[in-house]
Each structure stands twice: as C-alpha cells, then as structure tokens.
C-alpha cells in the first residue's frame, strides 16, 4: 500500500509543480492572475490591493524596473511575443516608438476606449494614438513643470526663501540664470545653483512650441531657434559655474540630493517622489516648490498599454481603465504626487487645495493644476527619447570641458540627423 | 557459431559508431546554441530589420556593412575595444604570473590565499561594476579621495578617454587576474623541482629562474589564457554599460569615449532596435576577435624554451 500511496503523492506533487510552472494565467483557487510591469514610482501599491478586494477573482502582481531597463525589456519581449506583463507602462519618451508598431498592442478603441476618450486631456489621448487611429495606451500622469528648491540654501546665500518671493525672482529662464549668479557669489561651500545642464534644458525644451520634431515627423531641432537659444543660455550658465554637473537619473545625481550639492532642480510632478526618496527624512521641510520660469510645459508622464501577447487581455484592459480613471488618479496624486492627466480633477477642490507636507506644505495641488492648465502641448516625434539622450550627452560634453558649446551643438545636430 | 558471429558484428558496430554517439550531444548543443545563432546573425546582418517589426524586414545584402565601414562611431568603438583589450589583457597575464609565482612558494595558509584569488571572479559582474563606479566617482569616490591626500586633485574619471579606460581596465583586471593565476599555478606545480635545483647549482638567481624556466614551461598555458582573455575582453559590455548607468548608458560616455564595439552593438540593437545593423557589428566584431586572438597567439608563441 505504502509505495502506491507514495507514487500517488509524487504524481500529485509533479502535477502541481507543472501546473504552477506554466500557470501564469490561473492562480490557485481559480483566480485570474494579472501582472503589471512598471518603472520608477507609479504609486499603485495600495490601488492594486483595493482592486483585488473589489474583484475577488483577480490577483495582481507588479514588477518594477529602472526606467531604461523597463523599456528595453519591453521592446525585447514584444519582439519575441513572450514575457510581456498583462499591462505594461510606457513613458512619453518611448510611446512614439511603440505606437509605430500598434499591432503589438491591443487597440483599446475596440475595447470601449473610444467611450472613455473624454476623460483625458486631448493631447494626452492623441499621444498614444497610432497614425491609423489605434489607441495603444491609457494615459496615467503628465509631467507639468515646477522648480523644487532648498529653502535653507537660498537663505544662506541671502536670497528670499518664501515661495512667492522666489517665483518673483525668475519670471524667465534668463532671470533664473541671473539669480543663480547672485546665489553662487554667497553660496554655501560645494553647493551649485542647479543639478545639471541637461535637466534645465529638458524643462525649457518642454515649454517650447516646437521641440525636436515638426508635425510631419521631420527632425527640425537643427533649425529650431527657440531650442538653440535655450542651449546657448544653459551653456552660459554652465560656464558661469552654476551647474553641479550631475546627469539626472544617475546614481551620482541621487547622491547629489543626499549630499545637498545643488539648490534647485526642475520638478516635473513625478520628480517629487524621487526627491523625497533620495533626500531622505532629514531634508523634510528644507525642500519647497514654486512655479517654473517661462510658463507651462511638459516633461514625461506615462501610459498603460496592454500587449496583445497577454493571456487575459480583457481583464487587463479593465484594470488599465480603472487605474487611469479620475478617482484613482486623484489618489495617486495624493500619495505619489503624479499629476493627473484627467482635466476634470483640475477643478476638484480635494486636488487643488492639496498641500505636500514634505515640501514645507507647498500647495502643490494649486501649483501643478495651474501648470497643467497653462501647458502648451508639444508634438513628440518617433525618437524624441533618443534625441533627449543625445542632447543630454551634448550638454555633458560642455560640462566636462570636452567641447565648447558650438562644437557640441554641431555634433548633436549631426548625430540626430542620422 | 551464429551467436558468436552476432556478438562480433555488434562489437564491430559498437567500436565503429559509439564514439560518434558519445560526441553527438556536444555537437547537437553546439549546433543549437553556437552554430545556428552564428549563421542566423549573418543572415540578419544582410537585412534591414527592426526589432519591433520583424514582418517589415527585407534583404539589403551588404548595405549594413557599407554603412558600418563608413561609420566613425563604429571605428571609435573598435578603437576603444582595442585600447581596452591592451589595457586589460597584458596586465592581467603579467599580474597572474606574479601572483601564481608567489602562491607557488611555501607560505602559511596558502590554501586560503589560493582560494582567495578566485573570489573576485565568482562575484556578480553587475555588483562589482556598480561598486567600482562609485570608487571612481568624481565628487565622493574613494580613489579621488586617496589621490587628494597626495595632492593629485580631483579626476573626473568618466569624462576622459584615458581615465575612463583605466577605470574600466581596473575592474576587468581585478576580476580576472585570480582566475588566470590559478591556471598558471596548477601548471607551475607540474614543473619538476630538479630543474630549479640544477639552475640553483649553476648560480641562477630567482629572477633568472622565473624568466628562463617557469615562463617558458608555461608557454601553452600563457597561449591559452591570452586567447581566453582576448575573446572575453574584445566583447566587454557590462563594465562600460554599468560604469555610466542611466538613460545614456548605451553611448558609453558623453562623447562615446568608452563605448566598446559590443556596447555600440547593444546601442544599435536595443535602443535603436536596428537589428540588421547590430548583427553586422556582431559579425565584424567576431572577425576582429579572431584576428586579435591570432595576433596574441603569434606573440605568445615566440616565448622560447631554451
């Protein structure tokens, strides 16, 4: 009897192993298991739990990678049609590459997306719409723009620290740079005015009416005077010694927050969660937020896409629609600071009156909804993300003293035309 | 009679064919994971092919190669590859010989030391690179701190071509020297002590014995390690990639100053999704590796056994 029982036991065990091994679609107890692939901080942890309790038949697991790893892995997984999560987040910098091959994704318009269209800012909706009218992603957040600054450092250099007074120092970027020169004269040891040229430049580019591309997908950055003027101004700032010469989203930049190497940093809304994570609790109340020079602009923001290779496409679409609904975007704004892409919330008092404790109780609700309303959407071409990397490298060449502004600009323009 | 006839026939069949059966698994695995990818890469290199849109691929024959040979960034990356090959392979083998010679003596706890030299090799390359990148940091790096004590000032290791190559070479040499040292050590122990005794009687110094006996007798191992190190160092990817993490990682520095050919391949294939071009780089890099390994073989072969 016993050997037989053992054999049955082994068989059952083996079956269980096999089932769990390939059972990415059905979890124990007949639940549907959904995976969601994210990068950075989407503020979804609690929302996913809430969704599970609302839908007892669904189990969600999320995986988070770094910004560039996430998008590279997604491309590789899409290419082989395997390994994609049921929902994959895509950033603005990459959405144009992915929407160029819309057949890899579920066309959300065929799943009721066209009914939801009015939720979003129209430019956000169009951002993930392919040329042949397929909708590959639901918008999550938008960047908006603001400036985060260290109150203690500005005070130490004899500048005002109050956020309205600070905003009055820099109606334009030129005045931002001029204020920087004043700051640098009396700055605390080892502190620079801004984190790095590429960060500032990205913000100014985000405010321009035309960025790297015109609407026919032609790269026009070489002839774009607005961008070239911004370039020259930032190069001048670097030469005046205002830059801590740290490239954004790198480990040394993270260290820069911790060590307090710079007094200001350009703050799209999603940056605030990063600043808080990197600066740590000891910097609470030292950071504050105020409006950005030069008016509204966008940098970043994301979409949730549903790859076609997923096993539970319909359930995934449902979840993506729920996560990007105004009610959920409001919660994300409050816990992670991501600026909603749904204009309905810009009038909502619970958003508009929201203040952030870490940033010295800054009225970020008012600040960012104003920024979103002032935002002048800019057309993003297919390789906007690559060009952003190239211009960042170009600015770094100037910061590292490898080239002067003009040489570096010429090389950048040549690189992106290829 | 019949029975015996049958066994001999089976025996003959056995001796004739079973060796092939024994080596078959290797060739099957090599075929699937070695030869097929190689041939397929050559095939892809003749196409215009986007990673995300394989349906839209079409044959362009040698267009990718023509573009490649006229591409200054490719030659830049090949130059960086050769420079890093020199900076890693030569010190690696010289240090390994020295360490092996030291470990071959009668020192206390030498098993501990012998095990210790292999430790860098079994640590994760990603972890090692991230830590080394911090050591070579511009503002808060340990290396700059030490240099500062000697009044050498702050070096922006990533910014310069030479400085970035040195930093990357240090990571590679640190990781692989112990591995080669163990190979040398094993062969040193096989050298007959009588040779050294005779040399001592003839009045040869330790230094002379090392260069005249040890090194010549290690010639086969030196050739082997040179080739292994060459094939490894010609396709350096993880170190230059992780030396500069972030969105611009694949360009290997602001002016591609430490972008190796393998990293250029990665940039073209996985950030620009141009698989045809990236495969062409892979093919040219493979040929270059064979040439450089051949060169290394010719140089090390000249070690004389007197």
TrEMBL record, chain A:
It comes from the Bacteria. This is Cellobiose transport system substrate-binding protein. Residues 399-418 are annotated as: Disordered. Keywords: Signal. The keyword Disulfide bond does not apply. The keyword Signal applies. It comes from Lentzea fradiae. Residues 1-20 form the signal peptide. Residues 401-411 have a biased composition (Polar residues). InterPro entries: Bact_solute-bd_prot1, SBP.
TrEMBL record, chain B:
It comes from the Bacteria. The keyword Cytoplasm does not apply. Keywords: Cell membrane, Membrane, Transmembrane, Transmembrane helix, Transport. PANTHER family: ABC TRANSPORTER PERMEASE PROTEIN, INNER MEMBRANE ABC TRANSPORTER PERMEASE PROTEIN YCJO. Pfam families: BPD_transp_1. This is Cellobiose transport system permease protein. The keyword Cell membrane applies. It is found in: Cell membrane. It comes from Lentzea fradiae. It is a multi-pass membrane protein. The chain crosses the membrane at residues 20-43, 82-103, 115-137, 157-174, 275-299. Its main location: membrane. Signal peptide: none annotated. InterPro entries: ABC_transporter_permease (IPR051393), MetI-like (IPR000515), MetI-like_sf (IPR035906). Coiled coil: none annotated. Residues 78-296 form the ABC transmembrane type-1 domain. Gene3D superfamilies: MetI-like. GO terms for biological process: transmembrane transport. One of its GO terms (cellular component) is plasma membrane. Belongs to the binding-protein-dependent transport system permease family.
